[in-house]
Design a protein that fits this description.
Length: 89
Amino acid sequence: MTHTPLTPTLQTIITKPLGSYRDEAILHETLKRRLTKKEYKVLVQLVEGLPPLEDLMTKLSLDSERYEHIVASLHKKLNSDRIKRELFE
């Protein structure tokens, strides 16, 4: 299994993985399709650390409560069986 920047972050979010992760490009494509724009941007920020959190929150017009809500929603979605099946081979 090749570890990409996205995979370790997904491993911390997803409980009960279903095997090995798909290719990085497929993961990004699937996540972009399945998540809202804000959820996807928050996930990318969690993975890469860029842009800095404060800049992202300003750009997306989020307060800390809304940001936490999006992160919780992200965890819930990524652990749903339907989306999980698309992330694993």
